[in-house]
Design brief:
The complex is a heterotrimer of chains A (487), B (102) and C (317). Chain A has 487 residues and is mainly α. Chain A has two domains: 269 residues, no CATH class; 218 residues, no CATH class. Chain A is 75% helix and 2% strand. Chain B has 102 residues and is mostly helical. Chain B has one domain: Helix Hairpins, CATH 1.10.287.3510. In chain B, 74% of the residues lie in helices and 0% in strands. Chain B starts with a helix and ends in an 11-residue tail after the last helix. With 317 residues, chain C is mainly α. In chain C, α2 packs antiparallel against α3, α3 packs parallel to α10 and α7 packs across α8. Classes of the chains: A mainly alpha (487), B mainly alpha (102), C mainly alpha (317). Chains in contact: A-B, A-C, B-C. The interface between B and C is large, with 80 and 95 residues.
């Protein structure tokens, strides 16, 4: 099969980092063509993800020894089903956001947007591919700085303040993580995740590292009560940036937390999982109530992110049913990535059209922007967890795990969170369907901004129909260690 | 206790002092100073502990990591400072809770 | 021996005291000066720990460039009257909140004690990676182990790190307008000094770069010296006329990460592994990357100090 071997012979993982980095620099050098160069780079990244996917299906997990040294001296890249899933979600959101940005940013801001955005994309890919906890620190910083710079792109006091708050939280999180890395390196003499996993044993130092790294990553993932930075940053950034921040950036730190938990800390962390579950529950309920109370659309969507991130942490106390709980977390991560990105893009369209985002004054949008309102509604279906959608599958799996373990408290949280989500989604849709009392000023929304939102929302729905392929993808490399867990 | 462990403990102390200042102070430049002091504390722990076995040669890997960390820190500081300057030009305050909300 | 450990204890306590001053001095200018002193003490500590490469980087970047950035920002903040927050600006409720935060030291003390215990209870001596570094140093193309780790064994980290630096400049340019004009009085004082110092700094930077392959030094130390020279020139009122040179400016800024990425892509193509150098060419490849990185680092740091996009036309006479 010559065509197949040509595909599997290429080191797609390394390209996933090098391509967007090259694109970023070329965009910076040749500003006049930034838009077309940026878009082509993102398309190339999508193709590379497809290549990596094919490679994984054919040959199993991906290993790449950067520098040719291999662990422990060198840095290893590694991709299994879980990394691939994150990379696919990243590529999908990145493509939609990039097409959207061609219409959203005018020339002066476009030439600043593209290099920063491509660096962020490279950093996210590098994070999902790294198997080295110090290299992961560098990628975390790269993600954080790029995201903060993009947040400030909107200008104005609110965006600057949001970006600053986010930057400080992000730096604090990375430093805590790095101190944990230092302790692990000096405990076991390596920064390679697989080597650390083999040498891991419980000790006060490991406990301190666990606490520091988890706290740092939880801060970056904005789990209640460390979520304070998220709503101001995500609501004040330009729409495509908000989509990336809520859809991808917070998921990156969650992915890393999950990875560390599965590979390193799962065996030495009795009791903490229940605390994470408790914080997750509070986040679901408190975030949803806050979302319900908002009068501005983007803040509502941002608080909804706080709530939906809470769901991810409900998987930890249910880890005894490993397969179900972790599949639920993976499903929730990617379906929220798609749905929330779609929601922020749709919100961006509404703002672009009406010039404001006061929910009460969004009347008669349905007649003027039917595609956008439809996209918002479809994304809402997934956020609420109604069938058939990715969000439904994720929440259903969580319920299943909670029911089999008799965790009625978590069952209640999942159901209540869904009802509250229905409340805030219909609050927006209700306003959009009302008759306008006064005619509004309106700006045309180009098709390049309407369709990406709709297609992302559709993808979030379709995700609910392709469960079996997704599950079989995630099992590549057995990231969830299902064989070892005794229920 | 040898000098290596002493420096590592100093590193822990700097990390804690920095964290305290980061939370307590409102002025953003002070918060940035605090982040930098915390970072120096982490770097000290990273390099000092490599020497806790005595004079058994130096480990170049954590040293290289710290050089990487220093460059990352100066990048982050520069970005944070320009944010503060812009924020102050916009609102008149170099704090997150400036009175002149937009 | 006793004298030495006495020195270490004094230095450790000194670090903590200067850090406390830097964090809590009532005057922000004083705090920044203490922070610069803190950086210099850190450099001393690195020397004590046999880490001269870090000591050089810390003195040039940690104390030098960071200090200059902080002072520059403070000057611009004072121009918009935000150099200091007085208590008068904080409302009553906020003041009460501040008071409750004073109790923060209790959980933080517990955290510090826990971390200290974690450090003290580390299991014996783990060898780390010094043996692997030593065993492979011969094939790395350089003989300074820190340079070998930075540019060969863990070169991928360094590649990303150069991108971080570029990103900081891109981020600054994306939000800042044109750079503020130079201050006239500083220019008058520094003009003569910079004429004398700049060639000297360039010479030392070139030496550090060249010697870095086998002794303490290398791209980061040399680059940060270049950056410091740039800071001096900017303070002296010198501005490049970038209208005609914008592309070449950007080319130098991307030279470091650009060459690094090109080497990564080329090695990926040739050997299937990115940044895997053939041992025979490792030395020359590392030198090429280091020269490009030094120029980029120097220009980027100076650009960060400039505090905005370079103006299109010459501003100062």
């Amino acid at each position: 099969m010559p065509a197949g071997s040509a595909v599997t012979g290429v080191s797609w993982g390394a390209l996933l980092v090098l391509l967007p980095l090259t694109g970023a620099m070329v965009c910076f050098l040749w500003t006049r063509a930034a838009r077309i160069l940026g878009l082509s780079t993102v398309i190339a990244v999508c193709l590379a993800v497809a290549g990596l996917g094919w490679q994984l299906l054919q040959e199993g997990v991906y290993h790449h020894a950067a520098g040719g040294w291999g662990a422990p001296l060198g840095i290893e890249l590694y991709a299994d089903g879980l990394s691939l899933l994150m990379l696919i979600a990243t590529a999908a959101v990145a493509l939609a956001v990039s097409i959207y940005s061609t219409g959203y940013f005018k020339r002066a801001r476009a030439i600043r947007f593209w290099p920063l955005w491509l660096i962020l994309l490279a950093a996210l890919n590098a994070l999902f591919l790294s198997a080295d906890i110090f290299n992961l620190y560098v990628t975390l910083e790269l993600v954080g700085l790029a995201a903060a710079a993009l947040t400030a792109l909107g200008g104005g006091a609110a965006a600057l303040r949001g970006a600053m708050r986010y930057l400080l939280a992000s730096l604090l999180g990375s430093l805590s993580y790095l101190l944990g890395v230092a302790l692990l390196y000096h405990s076991f003499g390596s920064v390679d995740i697989a080597m650390l996993a083999a040498r891991m044993e419980s000790s006060p130092t490991v406990w301190a590292a666990l606490g520091l790294m988890s706290a740092g990553l939880i801060m970056k993932t904005a789990l209640y009560p460390l979520h304070f930075w998220l709503p101001p940053a995500h609501s004040s950034a330009p729409a495509p940036v908000s989509a990336v921040l809520s859809g991808l950036v917070v998921k990156a730190s969650f992915y890393l937390l999950l990875r560390l938990w599965l590979e390193l800390f799962g065996s030495v962390s009795e009791g903490i999982d229940n605390m994470l579950g408790l914080l997750g529950s509070v986040a679901v309920l408190w975030g949803s109530v806050q979302a319900l109370r908002q009068t501005r659309l983007k803040l509502l969507v941002a608080y909804s992110t706080v709530a939906q991130l809470g769901y991810l942490f409900l998987a930890f106390p249910l880890a005894a049913s490993a397969m179900t709980a972790w599949n639920a977390a993976a499903y929730l991560v990617i379906s929220h990535a798609l749905a929330k990105a779609a929601m922020f893009l749709a919100a961006g369209n509404l703002m672009h059209f009406a010039g404001h985002d006061r929910i009460a004054d969004l009347d008669r949008m349905v007649q003027r922007l039917p595609l956008t309102v439809f996209a918002f509604a479809l994304a809402g279906v997934s956020i609420m967890g109604l069938p058939p959608s990715g969000g439904f599958i994720g929440k259903w799996l969580l319920l299943e795990a909670a029911l089999t373990q008799g965790r009625w408290d978590l069952v209640a949280v999942v159901i209540l969170g869904g009802l509250l989500a229905a409340g805030y989604v219909f609050k927006v849709l209700g306003s959009a369907f009302t008759q306008a009392a006064v005619p509004q000023r309106a700006r045309r929304v180009p098709a390049s901004m309407e369709w990406p939102a709709l297609l992302l929302a559709c993808a979030a729905i379709v995700l609910g129909l392709v469960t079996l392929p997704v599950f079989s993808l995630v099992t590549i490399g057995d990231a969830f260690g299902v064989d070892e867990v005794v229920p | 206790m040898n000098a290596a462990v002493l420096y590592a403990l100093v590193g822990v102390g700097l990390y804690s002092l920095g964290l305290y200042a980061l939370i307590v102070h409102a002025h953003l430049v002070r918060k940035i100073l605090a982040i930098n002091v915390m970072g120096s504390g982490v770097f000290l722990v990273l390099v000092a502990l490599a020497r806790r076995g005595g004079e058994a040669g130096t480990d170049a890997v954590p040293q290289a990591m710290v050089i990487t960390g220093i460059v990352v820190a100066v990048s982050a500081t520069a970005l944070a400072l320009i944010l503060v300057v812009k924020l102050a030009a916009e609102t008149g305050y170099a704090t997150l809770s400036g009175n002149r909300q937009e | 021996m006793l004298l030495q450990s006495g020195f270490d204890v004094a230095l450790g306590l000194g670090l903590l005291w200067v850090a406390w001053q830097a964090l809590n001095s009532s005057d922000l200018f004083k705090a920044i000066v203490f922070f610069i002193a803190f950086g210099l003490l850190m450099a001393l500590a690195w020397v004590r720990m046999d880490a001269p490469d870090i000591a050089l980087a810390e003195a040039a970047i940690g104390a030098g460039v960071t200090g200059a950035l902080l002072l520059g920002a403070l000057a611009r903040l004072r121009a918009s009257n935000a150099g200091e927050t007085t208590m008068g600006q904080a409302g009553n409720g906020q003041r009460r909140f501040m008071a409750s935060r004073r109790l923060l030291w209790i959980p933080l003390l517990l955290m510090a004690a826990g971390l200290g215990y974690a450090v003290l209870s580390l299991p014996g001596y783990t060898p780390g990676l010094s043996a692997q570094v030593a065993a492979n140093l011969g094939a790395s193309g350089v003989s300074n182990p820190v340079t070998a780790v930075l540019l060969n064994f863990r070169g991928y980290d360094t590649l990303l790190e150069l991108v971080v630096l570029l990103l900081a400049l891109l981020g600054m340019w994306s939000m800042a307008g044109p750079a503020p004009p130079p201050s006239a009085e500083a220019a008058a004082v520094l003009d003569g000094l910079s004429r004398f110092l700049t060639p000297l700094v360039l010479l030392v930077a070139a030496y550090l770069l060249w010697v870095g392959t086998r002794a303490p030094g290398g791209a980061f130390q040399a680059g940060s010296l270049l950056g410091a020279a740039g800071v001096l020139l900017i303070l002296a009122g010198w501005r490049a006329n970038v209208a005609s040179t914008a592309l070449s400016l950007r080319l130098v800024l991307t030279a470091g990460p650009g060459v690094f990425v090109a080497v990564a892509a080329f090695s990926l193509l040739m050997s299937g592994q990115m940044l895997k150098y053939p041992p025979a060419y490792a030395g020359i490849l590392i030198l090429i990357i280091e020269i490009a990185a030094t120029l980029s680092i120097g220009l980027t740091l100076a650009g960060l100090f400039l505090g905005g996009r370079p103006r299109g036309e010459r501003k100062s006479p």
